[in-house]
Structure formats: C-alpha cells, structure tokens
Design a protein that fits this description.
8 strands; single chain; alpha/beta; eight-stranded mixed beta sheet; Rossmann fold; globular
C-alpha cells in the first residue's frame, strides 16, 4: 500500500496523521521564498486538495540561528478546515544542517510533537551541506555521510517504532556547466541506505538533473532556483512548488 493510500485510510476513519519534514535550508526555505511558498507549505496544500473532508494543519519550525536547534514552532496554521480526521505537516529545517547536526538536534523532531501526536512519517532530505568540500566545518566523505545517516535512521526507528521513514536525495548544488554533479556520490549513499533498510526513497536529485539545461541561467536551473547571485541550491517559489508536486506523486507509489 502506498503512503498516500495509508494516509487516506487513516483520515477516512477520523484519525490523526503526522508528517515531519526534516532537513537543512532547502526544507527551511526562508530568505529564498516566503513561509507560504516552501515545498512543505505546498505539500500541505496538495494533501488538502486530495483529502477534501480532512482538517489539514501546518506548523513551521522557527529558526533564530543557523546550525542551532530550532527556537520553537509557529502557532498551527490551518490549511483546510474539515470534519473527518486531521493531517498535520511540520516543517523542521535548519540552515546549514548536516546529518550530524540533525543528530545533535534530535529532540527537535523525535518523540511526541507539541500537540501530543506521535510522528507517522518522517521525510528526510540531507546531503548538500555534507558534500561541501570547501567547508571543513560541514564536509564529510560519502562514506562518513552514509554512516552518520545510518545512525540517524536507527535513532528514529528506536524512538518512533511505528513511523515510516522516507529518504530524499539532495536536490542540486552545481554550477550547471555539465551533467556530472558533486552530489552524485551522496545520492548513491542515500539510495543504498534506503534499500538496505526497506525505506522508500524519493530521487529529488534526478528530478533536478532532468530539469537542468547546461549553460542556461541560474546555474542551469532557470526558474527553479532563487536567482540570487552565487546561490546554487535554494528553491524559488516555482522550484518549491514543482518539488512538492514530485514528492506528492512519489508518495503514491
């Protein structure tokens, strides 16, 4: 059964379903698009459209300082008022995060959420900062990345035994001058880890590489990147919306 079908079944019974999206600044999204334009916000709206009777609620993690734990969470934002079941989506991204930093702030997103619900699904996307060879404070080899990620997944499995885990490959962080990506070895490790654990994975990197036109504007990604000079990775509102549509479709597999 697909994850989306499982969610539909739970909601049809009037139950709760909690999704927590954990990642770095790509998940956080701010400074490159508004709170309502992140891929998490768009994903919540897509779920609302597919579940017209559901109550759909969103929480956004509050980031006061990059590379530090969350300051807290926003008040609940009602995406859709419904009478049958509640789907909650929580955005838990912190700029500059690596897998190791996500481990260090594990209490941000593990265990019970602030409303007492327990997570049903973790969407994880890491790798861009881990692969930054020019930043020794973040960089790790693909092998170390894999080992750290395996530790994080084991921690999640042990603390949230009934939750599903979906691993997303890191999206894009290249200059767009060729089709070979600095992220390729890290994406391979994400897929290897997912297969070893029986997790679903969503190949975000493949999506972005298929959108690439070598030598075109915004580092080959045109309307999918924020457009800021020197910004190789952060989504525009269009990039976030299309990423959310892809995630949503993949969760139906």
């Amino acid at each position: 059964m697909s994850i989306r079908k499982s969610i539909e079944n739970r909601i049809s019974k009037g139950e709760y379903y909690l999704i927590i999206a954990v990642g770095d600044s790509i998940t956080w999204g701010l400074n490159h698009c508004s709170e309502e334009e992140t891929y998490c916000a768009e994903l919540a709206r897509l779920f609302a459209k597919s579940l017209p009777e559901a109550n759909v609620v969103r929480y956004d993690g509050i980031v006061k300082e990059e590379r530090r734990p969350l300051y807290g969470y926003s008040e609940p934002k009602t995406v859709q008022s419904g009478s049958k079941g509640t789907l909650t989506l929580v955005k838990c991204g912190v700029g500059g995060d690596t897998v190791q930093r996500a481990i260090n702030r594990f209490d941000d997103y593990a265990g019970e959420f602030i409303n007492g619900e327990k997570p049903d699904l973790f969407l994880l996307m890491f790798g861009i900062n881990d692969a930054l060879a020019n930043d020794p404070d973040k960089y790790v080899s693909p092998e170390r990345f894999y080992n750290n990620y395996a530790v994080l997944c084991d921690m999640l499995k042990n603390s949230n035994r009934n939750a599903e885990i979906v691993l997303m490959t890191p999206s894009y962080n290249d200059e767009g001058k060729g089709t070979q990506s600095c992220l390729d070895p890290y994406c391979e490790k994400v897929i290897e880890l997912a297969r070893k654990n029986g997790f679903q994975y969503i190949d975000m990197h493949k999506l972005w590489m298929e959108h690439l036109i070598v030598g075109s504007e915004n580092y080959g990604q045109r309307d999918w990147l924020s457009g800021a000079e020197g910004d190789l990775c952060h989504f525009s509102d269009k990039g976030a919306a299309d990423a959310a549509k892809f995630i949503f479709s993949e969760l139906d597999k």
